Amino acid sequence: MARSRLVSPRNSNARQESILELISADGRIAVEELAERFAVTPQTIRRDLNELAAARRLTRVHGGAVVASGIENLAYETRKGTASEAKERIGAVAASMIEQGSSLFINLGTTTEAVARALARHTGLLVVTNNFNVAGTLYANPEIKVIMAGGSMRSSDGGIVGQAAAAAMAGFKMDLAVIGTSAIDEEGVLLDYDVREVQVSRAIIENARRVMLVADAGKFARRAPIRIARLAEIDLFVTDRLPTPRAAALCRDSKVEVVEVLA
């Protein structure tokens, strides 16, 4: 893929964040390509990649780097900062499609949290969530009733996970589920890292009349070991873009309505 040449940010932190956005979109990146793109030496790029790998934000390979491990998720703060602008656009458009007076599930994820931020001024909503950050965003609005699932809270991100939370979700039948995912594989399977989180996501999907997936294009380049669902179980997919013809074909074959939120 042809890339335009960029002037390298003077601040290495800014350059490293740009590298993470590129690798999130493409899945793999080469040292020489990055050096040309940012107009710096390969040694500078190698130092950037080594620092990012030490922080578990990517995985180093010969000649470049790939997205982080397929068996361990990125740290929460790293996930928040990855494709953050795209997530905010996705959140705004997704929220605009949710009718006032709806009942909805919202599960774990930094993109679902972006949806919650965009919903903060809606009225007449009933929100059932296992995401402490979502609840913290919405509870102050007296026009939104928030119900938190009970269960074990992950200290890393405020997620309520496990059988108790899944059982709590099964006690509702909601208009809409707003869900995120850690990865989407080449067969159209949504994937995650924590089996306890997947138990809750499955209960959410099974007890919603419609399911909205919110995920940025980088999820097509990531790997994770545990199945959540197939794209065919999704009614609506809000994303910044479909990164490849293969991704577009997966959505067509799965009969998923796609809304692309282009920059």
Summarize the structure.
By secondary structure, the protein is an alpha/beta fold.
Summary tags:
263 residues; alpha/beta; Arc Repressor Mutant, subunit A; Rossmann fold; 2 domains; seven-stranded parallel sheet; three-stranded antiparallel sheet; 38% helix; 22% strand; disordered N terminus; WH_DNA-bd_sf
Q: If you had to describe this structure to a student in words, what would you say it looks like?
A:
With 263 residues, the protein is of the alpha/beta class. The chain has 10 helices and 15 strands. Strands 6-5-4-9-12-14-15 form a 7-stranded parallel β-sheet, with helices on both faces. Helix 10 (245-253) links the parallel strand 14 and strand 15. Helix 6 runs parallel beside helix 7 (132-138) and helix 8 (163-169) packs parallel to helix 9 (195-206). Mean pLDDT is 90; it is low at 1-9. This is DeoR family glycerol-3-phosphate regulon repressor. Residues 12-67 form the HTH deoR-type domain. It comes from Endobacter medicaginis.
**Class computed from helices, strands and strand pairing:** alpha/beta
Instruction: Estimate nothing, just give the exact number of structural domains.
Output: 2
**Number of helical runs?**
10
What is the CATH class designation of the largest domain? Answer: Alpha Beta
- State the CATH architecture of the largest domain: 3-Layer(aba) Sandwich
Distance between the ends: 19 Å
Instruction: Count every beta strand, where a strand is a DSSP E run of 2 or more residues.
Output: 15
* Radius of gyration, CA atoms, in whole angstroms: 19 Å
Return the average pLDDT rounded to an integer: 90
Per the CATH scheme, the topology name of the largest domain is Rossmann fold
Largest sheet: 7 strands, parallel
The level of helicity is 25-40%
- Beta-strand residue percentage: 15-25%
**Low-pLDDT residue intervals, each spanning 5 or more residues:** 1-9
Strand order of the largest sheet: 6-5-4-9-12-14-15
Protein name: DeoR family glycerol-3-phosphate regulon repressor
InterPro entries: Carb_Metab_HTH_regulators, DeoR-like_C, DeoR_HTH, NagB/RpiA_transferase-like, Tscrpt_reg_HTH_DeoR_CS, WH-like_DNA-bd_sf, WH_DNA-bd_sf
Domain HTH deoR-type: 12-67
Pfam families: DeoRC, HTH_DeoR
